[in-house]
Amino acid sequence: MLRIRSFILGLVLIGLCAATPKAKAETAWLGLVAGPPAGSETVLAADMASLFEKDEGFRVLPMLGDVGAGNIALLLNDPRVDIAFVSTDALAAAEAAGQNLSERLELVARLAPQEIHVLARAEIGSLADLASKKVNFGPEGGSSAATAAALFRALGITVEGQSLDAGAAVEHLKQGTIAAAVIVGGKPYPLVGAVPANSGIHILPIPFGASLEAAYLPTRFEQGDYPNLIQPGGEVATVATGMVLLAAKSKSDPGVLGRVAHFVEALFSRFPELQASDRHPKWREVNLAASLPGFQRTAAAEAWLGGRPAEAPAKPIMATAGAVQPASMPDGLMSKSDKEALFKRYIEWQRSKGH
Description:
Blueprint: H1 2-10, H2 12-17, E1 28-33, H3 40-50, E2 58-63, H4 69-77, E3 83-87, H5 88-96, E4 105-110, E5 114-121, E6 134-136, H6 143-155, E7 160-162, H7 166-175, E8 180-184, H8 190-193, E9 201-203, E10 217-222, E11 235-241, E12 243-248, H9 256-269, H10 271-274, H11 299-305, H12 336-352
Parallel strand pairs: 1-2, 1-3, 6-7, 6-8
Antiparallel strand pairs: 3-12, 4-12, 5-8, 5-9, 5-11, 10-11
């Protein structure tokens, strides 16, 4: 039964977003590239896609990504990708490399800050203790790697960076082959929440200081966020980086503007639905009016926020043929409550289709 349930949960995005034999031929697809399988961004993408589950003419297709350089490249170059999750650290790194992204990309929405988790071995008492030790930053080009590199550079601490994915990094921590791992994502982050209390791993505090003021926000983890790692009444100081939804200013597909406008109209007008108790708690930290310095908003977002909601086409233009298959969701992706809520929405979607 557990295996069957895991399989069904793995098909949630397909149920919410994928084409079926009954789907109308004129359905338009908006490609939304999110984060890794264990990332909170992937849950947020599924929540967005669920807003369109009854829209016969328009669907959102979430795809796995890295929230970093890979997502930026897909957004700029892949005709199947219309909107991407991108961390502000990855944006800053790309801008520093001379990519002039502010001239090529525009803001759809600024999302909630993403907390920086530094998981460390028990014998590591502070960030300074990590000097010259092996610390996992995450896959090269990904948002965690960009944030980790920027963080340690700002702190003036030199470490031996590793490029494991987050799941593998936790296993290496348990084995003692690395000293710490940096994981960037909205709390509660499922992978961190799954670390056993007796594993010899703890969350290392990141004190906020002058060297971090320009790029990060001070915040904290509380016992309710990670009861397995934080004692009752306790808290751990940390910092957070930004997360944004971006669209490309110009692409070869003439239908992209219509798809983005349709997406923005539904997302903004139905935003209270995403802030309901059964959704990811990060939705309740989002301010749709928040800006991104140096970047313009999409015309649809600017119009909606200005009190003149842009009208989406009655029949949005179809996406380029040959769209990729929807990404599946591993069983460890979400918290139990998130799983139950999304599973319930999947069943309701099935019933509405007469399956």
